[in-house]
Each structure stands twice: as C-alpha cells, then as structure tokens.
Amino acid sequence: MKIFINDIPIRIISLRKLNSSHVFSTIIGPQQTLNPKLLKHNVLIKSPSNRVIDQVLLLMSKKKYKEMSMITLAGKEKKDIVEYVKSKFTIIEAGGGIVEKDGKFLMIHRKGQWDLPKGKRDAGEGIEECALREVEEETGVKVEVVKRITSVWHTYLQNKKYILKKTYWYSMNCLDDSEMKPQKEEGIKDVKWMTIIKMEEALLSSYRSLRYVVQEYRQIRSI
What we know:
The chain is α/β, with parallel strands linked by helices. About 25% of the residues lie in helices and about 40% in strands.
C-alpha cells in the first residue's frame, strides 16, 4: 500500500518484503524516537508502534518535507499497519482516467496546474461508473473503459477533518470529443490533448501521485 500525504509517498510493506534492492538514507528502529530532522530522502521505519505512526501522519500532514522522497513503514504484519492508518481518517473513494485518442492524452487545468480528470464516487455508484461519469462531466468527452491501471491513496484536510481518499484509475479510449469543454463550475479552466511526453512534462509541476499513475499506465501499455 502507498499513501500520498502532502504529495510525499508513504509505503507500507511487511518486513519479509525488505531486500537488498531497497536502499534507504535513514533507518529508524523500533525503539528509536522519530526526529523530524531525519525526514529526508528515503526513510525506513521498522516495526513502527502506533505512537510512531501517529507522529508520522501528524508531521507529514502539517508540513511538506521538500527533501523527502519516501517513507517506508515495515512491520511484521502489513495489514495491522494498514488498518491502523485507515482508522485515523474518514475514507472516501473516487475514480478517474487516462484517456487516449490517436496517441494523445486528455488533460485538465485546475487550481493553476495540469491534472487528470477524476472525482468522488456518489452513493450507490460503482467505481468504474464513477470514473466514466467524472471524466465525461469534467471534460465533455465521451469515453469507454479499457482496463484498470492502479489505485492511489492520498490525504487532505477538509473542514478541519483528515480525509483519506482512494482513487481508482482506469485506462480509457475516447469515443467522441466533439463537445469537449472544461467543467467551469468545478474550477477547470482548460481541457487539452497532449502527447505522452508533453503530459509527463506538464505533470512535473503537478502532483507526484499523478506521475506515479502515468508510470503505471506506461507499464501496462508498454509505452
């Protein structure tokens, strides 16, 4: 499981999954105190207690650590850490897509940066149905789902409450873009087709979680 907090990934794995391919700049043991000054580059926290997990979530939520690449929480039972982290947040679900047409990809411009179309799931709505609806509402483009890419967890603050959002991402094809236009009531200023290279360049100044989604998309499409 990988959660993005303030756009920094926190990866949760089991201790038995650690191997020589994992390289860390700092390793914090079970009995060590979490020092914020150590939150740089690639950090491993082994067998974290609930208290340490609380510290990580609080620190990462309050401040964006620009020198941080990733925090890895590794415990004997991965599911115990995952469930404890989930218990600290209100969980919502969302769906979105990477839409392709003739080798170009659909992007939206919102909040001063380029983004991929996505949105929250309505009550009683299937997650794939949600992804289709949100893409079509935000862009005016009719689409179809090809296959699921991945899912990404990230957090944000809403009305002084911490939200943990799981977004399901799908590979999609364009069916009709004759009525393409931004959904202005959602703060979208522009909708544009971009090549894969231009899309990746645009996302360099956007959310890291989106760059991760594009990487996963490249793998399943071998591009």
